[in-house]
């Protein structure tokens, strides 16, 4: 909160707006103070320094301040390639990326916040620059493999974007041995002709030792599996005994027929549901969420730790929870047969799927059964006689839930919600943590029930808070940027498709869904869905209600998972305060306004880290699985075409490259206007969506790469012209939610892979 007060002594937007005016010329701090009417010199200079360190402004050699873009400079994050060169991705989104050669990095490393000077003679989208200042370092600690020679020790970073080995000076190895995975703290940053230096601060274990691979990723993303002692003490001091204090003001729902429906391996059960059919045909839907806010009080050690973590992180073999297991798996988890405190959203829904009325209140509940997705699916789809008999009291409820979920889904589809249905997979591990199977996982009616019910509750709570005009953390998903839409439409034109804006020049999410419907079942369905998803904005948290584009919902927040997401916990707290006598005072409203902005930013940032770490772990296990199948053949489909080959996605969701050099029956050339590799003499072509059979030729676990070779190329190529997709109907549209395409997409088609997809439109995400 101290940082917040210092930053708000002056409005950042006001200062930047002044500097963006045409008449502005660089001013000293004293001159700026006079112009802006500031009196506290120390606080104002600290404010300027913080903006300078964040890359918003630049201080010249004459101690004058201005905007980077007005001085031929660009501030942004450095994204390094694995080959040494890099790009600066500007903070100002309307600016183009700036290419930085390896010779012009000047000690900057991947992920650093940097200031770059644009080199003369480079303009537009072909700007080239050099790093002149590193504003913030991103890699103070690095995970890698320790190597010792006779005269030298060094660590090879696991992250291939960090292309320089880190020298370990004598006496700083912490006893690390050859091929140990270690964590290194950098003690001297790289210079033009000098590698970085560091000291080993933690030895994780030998390469190949069970669990070390996942632990390395955990450390790479600076995740902390263990909780501080004071947090554990606070959690251990909580009691799950429910007395008069706990029950005061709560509605007793313990005799209601409530169930949880989750994955078989879930331990943190934070949502239960109930449903009954009312006289007249309306549905009474209850969504009952663990009341974590009762136990995790604002400002407590538990709360501070939850704020820092912001989310639970789910790996293939373990979970790093937001809250200690004492809370996440016990006191707060809605375990069957045990009394639990909850926050209930009770909704009356019409047969057309409209929420006619609702109530929000604290409750005490007792879950009747802990159900799994598989069991509910087997009851509703397979009519499994054993399960039907075992849960005979609940079978009518499940049937009613399936009916209401279908109604709610149709209503969402009618208003234009986008439904990306990508195939997903689960990796099964043995006792040593080695992958033994990759099992495709499809959403069933059971997942659909929970997804629709959670969306309904989230929308109701978001609208309730918005109409109360109280501060809150909202889940927002904004309309795609115009340049992303242009690139997407350039890409869709290859398939005779187009998304058109409405009369106001805006895009409607329904237009995206129409495209997805049009390509359903076609060979190019997967890649079009992927490119569309990437054209959209990434869903995030915000202190303003900006709507959710992908769900076509004007009001949306996260209310349903307070055990594993901090924004949900904040929403619960604010709801509780609105129920207190007198409500929120003006002073409290101001405090919450500032806090929800901080909480939203923190949660958005930590969510990105969690997604990347989870994705990298899953990719690693998939590649490890393929390493055990070198020489085996698989069937798949071409998921991307590039000048040096094409990518194939197998039925088990693993993706690998068929390099053009392995296509020996002809000379193949990349035809950008066809998104195809075409044979020079035979005219044979390899295109997106084409089914192929491949052999696993090589696997590199460290680089997460799988190389395929085509089996029987004469039997798998497609000689049909690209015009086969040209004459198809052009789909008129308006607006939706995801990623990017066009000429940039064609250059980066590798990036349109499974690992890049987010879960922006999933109901629980």
From TrEMBL:
User: Residues annotated as region Disordered?
Assistant: 717-765
Enzyme class at the top of the EC tree = hydrolase
Query: What keywords tag this UniProt record?
Result: Cytoplasm, Exonuclease, Hydrolase, Nuclease, RNA-binding
Domain of life, per lineage: Bacteria
Q: Which residues form the S1 motif domain?
A: 631-711
What's an example Gene Ontology biological process for this entry? mRNA catabolic process
Q: Which reaction does it catalyse?
A: Exonucleolytic cleavage in the 3'- to 5'-direction to yield nucleoside 5'-phosphates
InterPro entries, from UniProt? CSD, CSD2, NA-bd_OB-fold, RNase_B_OB_dom, RNase_II/R, RNase_II/RNase_R, RNase_R, RNR_Ribonuclease
Q: Which residues form the signal peptide?
A: none
Which GO terms of the cellular component aspect does the record hold? cytosol
Report a single Gene Ontology molecular function. exoribonuclease II activity
Primary subcellular site in the record, as a coarse category: cytoplasm
Give its E.C. classification number. Answer: 3.1.13.1
Regions of biased composition (Basic residues) lie at 744-765
User: Nuclease: is it a keyword of this entry?
Assistant: yes
UniProt subcellular location: Cytoplasm
* Job of this protein: 3'-5' exoribonuclease that releases 5'-nucleoside monophosphates and is involved in maturation of structured RNAs.
The protein here is known as Ribonuclease R
């Amino acid at each position: 909160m101290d940082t917040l007060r210092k930053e708000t002594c002056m409005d950042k937007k006001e200062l930047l707006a002044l500097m963006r005016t045409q008449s502005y010329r660089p001013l000293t701090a004293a001159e700026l103070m006079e112009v802006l009417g500031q009196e506290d010199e120390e606080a104002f200079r600290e404010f300027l320094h913080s903006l300078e360190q964040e890359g918003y402004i630049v201080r010249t050699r004459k101690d004058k301040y201005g905007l980077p873009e007005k001085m031929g400079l660009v501030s942004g994050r450095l994204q390094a390639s694995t080959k040494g060169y890099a790009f600066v991705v500007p903070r100002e989104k309307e600016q183009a990326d700036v290419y930085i050669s390896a010779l012009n990095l000047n000690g900057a490393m991947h992920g650093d916040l940097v200031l770059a000077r644009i080199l003369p003679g480079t303009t537009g989208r072909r700007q080239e620059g050099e790093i002149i200042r590193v504003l913030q370092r991103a890699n103070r600690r690095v995970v890698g493999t320790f190597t010792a020679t006779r005269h030298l020790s060094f660590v090879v970073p696991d992250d291939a974007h960090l292309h320089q080995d880190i020298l370990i000076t004598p006496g700083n190895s912490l006893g690390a041995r050859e091929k140990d995975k270690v964590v290194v703290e950098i003690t001297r940053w790289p210079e033009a002709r000098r590698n970085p230096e560091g000291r080993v601060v933690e030895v994780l274990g030998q390469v190949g030792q069970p669990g070390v691979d996942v632990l390395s990723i955990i450390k790479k993303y600076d995740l902390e599996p263990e909780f501080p002692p004071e947090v554990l003490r606070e959690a251990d001091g909580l009691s799950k005994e429910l007395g008069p204090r706990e029950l005061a003001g709560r509605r007793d729902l313990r005799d209601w027929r409530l169930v949880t429906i989750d994955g078989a391996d879930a331990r943190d059960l934070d949502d239960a549901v109930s449903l009954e059919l009312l006289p007249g045909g309306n549905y009474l839907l209850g969504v009952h969420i663990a009341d974590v806010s009762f136990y995790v009080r604002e400002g407590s050690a538990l709360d501070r730790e939850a704020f820092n973590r912001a989310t639970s992180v789910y790996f293939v073999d373990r979970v790093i929870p937001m809250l200690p297991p004492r809370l996440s798996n016990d006191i707060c988890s809605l375990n069957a047969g045990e009394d639990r405190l909850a926050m209930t959203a009770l909704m009356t829904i019409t047969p057309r799927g409209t929420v006619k009325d609702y109530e929000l209140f604290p409750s005490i509940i007792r879950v009747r059964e802990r159900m799994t997705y598989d069991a509910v699916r087997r009851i509703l789809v397979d009519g499994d006689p054993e399960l039907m008999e075992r849960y005979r009291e609940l079978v009518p409820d499940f049937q009613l839930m399936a009916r209401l979920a279908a109604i709610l889904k149709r209503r969402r589809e009618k208003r234009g919600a986008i439904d990306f249905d990508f195939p997903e997979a689960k990796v099964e591990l043995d006792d040593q943590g080695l992958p033994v199977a990759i099992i495709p996982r499809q959403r069933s009616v059971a997942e659909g029930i929970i997804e629709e019910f959670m969306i309904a509750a989230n929308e109701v709570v978001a609208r309730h808070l918005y109409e109360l005009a109280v501060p809150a953390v909202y889940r927002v998903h904004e309309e795609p940027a115009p340049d992303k839409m242009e690139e997407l439409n350039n890409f869709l034109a290859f398939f005779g498709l187009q998304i058109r804006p409405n009369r106001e020049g805006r895009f409607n999410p329904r237009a995206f869904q129409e495209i997805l419907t049009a390509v359903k079942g076609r060979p190019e369905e997967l890649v079009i869905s992927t490119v569309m998803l990437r054209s959209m904005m990434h869903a995030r948290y915000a202190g303003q209600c900006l709507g959710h584009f992908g769900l076509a919902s004007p009001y949306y927040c996260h209310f349903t998972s307070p055990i594993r997401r901090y924004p949900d916990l904040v929403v619960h707290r604010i709801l509780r305060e609105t129920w207190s006598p007198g409500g929120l005072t003006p002073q409290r409203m101001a405090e919450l306004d500032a806090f929800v902005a901080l909480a939203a930013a923190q949660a958005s940032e930590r969510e990105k880290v969690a997604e990347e770490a989870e994705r990298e772990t899953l990719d690693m296990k998939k590649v490890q699985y393929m390493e055990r199948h070198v020489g085996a053949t698989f069937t798949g489909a071409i998921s991307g075409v590039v000048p040096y080959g094409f990518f194939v996605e197998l039925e088990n969701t693993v993706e690998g490259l068929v390099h053009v050099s392995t296509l020996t029956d002809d000379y193949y050339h990349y035809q950008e206007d066809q998104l195809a590799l075409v044979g020079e003499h035979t005219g044979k072509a390899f295109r997106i969506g084409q089914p192929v059979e491949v052999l696993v030729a090589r696997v590199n676990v460290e680089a997460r790469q799988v190389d395929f070779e085509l089996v029987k190329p004469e039997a798998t190529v497609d000689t049909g012209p690209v015009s086969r997709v040209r004459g198809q109907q052009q789909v008129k549209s308006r607006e939706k939610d995801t990623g990017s395409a066009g000429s940039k997409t064609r250059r980066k088609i590798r990036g349109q892979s499974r690992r890049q997809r987010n879960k922006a439109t999933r109901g629980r995400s």
